[in-house]
Design brief:
Elements (H helix, E strand, L loop, with lengths): L10 E3 L9 H14 L2 E8 L8 H8 L5 E9 L3 H11 L5 E6 L3 H12 L9 H15 L4 E4 L9 H12 L7 E6 L2 E2 L2 E2 L2 H18 L3 H6 L10 E4 L14 H12 L5 E7 L17 H19 L6 H28 L6 H24 L10 H7 L3 H16 L1
Parallel strand pairs: 1-10, 2-3, 2-5, 3-4, 6-10
Antiparallel strand pairs: 5-9, 6-9, 7-8
Helix pairs in contact: 1-6, 5-14, 7-10, 7-11, 7-12, 9-10, 10-12, 11-12
GO molecular function, one term: transferase activity
Protein name: Glycosyl transferase
Organism: Catenovulum adriaticum
């Protein structure tokens, strides 16, 4: 049985009794909720994930979900032949399916127009994919609440989706946003190194240096801040500005903190076990793997603190690095003991290698921030885009429909 402890400044919705409500009973409630608040799902996907071990199982589960009005799939890195194959691959789903061929000429033309106006995402990646999918959801007007999750979840079960959407689907709840969390344990070991060994100790180090700032308390309230699973009311899409880099998840949390009071935000336990593909440490490559991820995430946190009036200099970042390093090493010992009591494997050497890399990258991210204080990796809000190009949503919907009609 899970604990019921409420820590931090946002509501935590636990899984207190795993046998009291079956998946079928939960979905029956969701069907009733969907009559009041129509529900959608966004799936940002690389074409390569169609050949992976996870996505086919995800679709098998989604095919049994009775309450989704629409599923919007953002497809990246796909040729014409691959897009045609993707349409067949996703056609097993009985829901209303829309597949955005992000590399196709129609959507590329819209992207070029937005780029010319300074409104398009500046770099490729998940952030860009998610942004266009959310713009489509907003423009289609098909749903009042929407969930998003990745396409590489090896342990996927449709109950995860029901629990993720439930807080923003239930009309008796007032939540605008919900973050999923879970224990990152699989293959007899503790995963989630960036969250465990970077984000949490970095937040604790920043608290020690700057005090218990509201933003730091807020971020530290999330049990798994880097989870790729979240849901929200559709009107949230209008105002959020999301990063196009690996700072996506932190950026979304920061935007929710800026736009809503804490009592409109929550997190929910969605899985007992969770596993997906793992990034390499990439200690010799700042443009890939966990190395790039740690730099982008650190910069996202530093940028947000700067907008709240925190002043940084090179010596501050050196202090942050030193404080972080000591706290993170203590966490390694904590996780080692947690692993031992649960009979899990634990490699102290690889854990401390990760901490050393993250400490180095925290300083690198800080100095980069000082050298480029006006860097803006944020993609403009859809409010701004539709103000500049009022018919963009209708043209995007038309482009997607024409792509699907031509290549189906």
């Amino acid at each position: 049985m899970g604990d019921f402890y409420q820590n931090g400044v946002i509501t935590t919705l636990h899984n207190l009794s795993r046998d009291s409500v079956s998946t079928e009973e939960l979905e029956a409630q969701m069907v009733e909720f969907a009559k009041v608040r129509p529900l959608s799902l966004v799936l940002p996907s690389l074409y390569s994930e169609l050949q992976g071990p996870a996505l086919s199982n995800i679709l098998d589960h989604l095919a049994k979900v009775p309450y989704l009005k629409q599923i919007v799939i953002g497809l990246d890195r796909a040729t014409e032949e691959e897009y045609t194959h993707a349409l067949k691959f996703f056609s097993r789903l009985p829901q209303n399916i829309k597949v955005l061929w992000n590399d196709g000429p129609r959507l590329q033309a819209l992207d070029a127009e937005l780029k010319k106006a300074g409104l398009a995402p500046k770099e490729l990646g998940k952030g860009r994919n998610v942004w266009y999918c959310l713009g489509y959801v907003l423009g289609s007007g098909e749903s009042e609440s929407v969930a998003l999750h990745d396409c590489d979840v090896l342990t996927y079960d449709r109950r995860m989706l029901a629990r993720l959407l439930y807080p923003v689907a239930n009309p008796n709840f007032n939540y605008e946003f919900c973050k999923g969390y879970y224990a990152r344990v699989a293959d007899s070991k503790i995963n989630g190194r960036v969250s465990r060994l970077l984000v949490t100790p970095l937040l604790r180090a920043l608290k020690k240096i700057f005090g218990n700032l509201d933003y730091l308390e807020y971020l530290d309230s999330y049990r798994y801040p880097l989870a790729g699973e979240f849901s929200f009311r559709t009107d949230v899409i209008n105002d959020i500005r999301i990063p196009s880099d690996w700072g996506l998840e932190i950026g979304v949390l920061s935007e929710m903190e800026r736009n809503y009071s804490n009592n409109r935000l929550c997190q929910v336990d969605i899985a007992d076990t969770y596993d997906h593909k793992h990034q390499s440490l990439s200690k010799d490559n700042d443009e890939g793997g966990l190395s790039k991820m740690s730099i982008d995430i650190s910069k996202a946190i530093f940028r947000k603190l700067a907008t709240n009036g925190v002043v940084f200099n090179s010596e501050t970042f050196r202090s942050i690095k030193a404080t972080y390093y000591r706290i993170a090493l203590d966490f390694v010992e904590t996780y080692r003991n947690d692993a031992i009591i649960n009979g899990l494997d634990f490699d102290i050497h690889s854990e401390e290698m990760a901490v050393e890399l993250f400490a180095h990258n925290i300083l690198k991210a800080g100095l980069n921030f000082l050298d480029n204080p006006m860097e803006t990796p944020f993609i403009p809000s859809w409010n701004r885009v539709t103000s500049a190009v009022p018919d963009i949503a209708q043209r995007m919907i038309k482009a997607v429909d024409e792509d699907m009609a031509e290549f189906s």
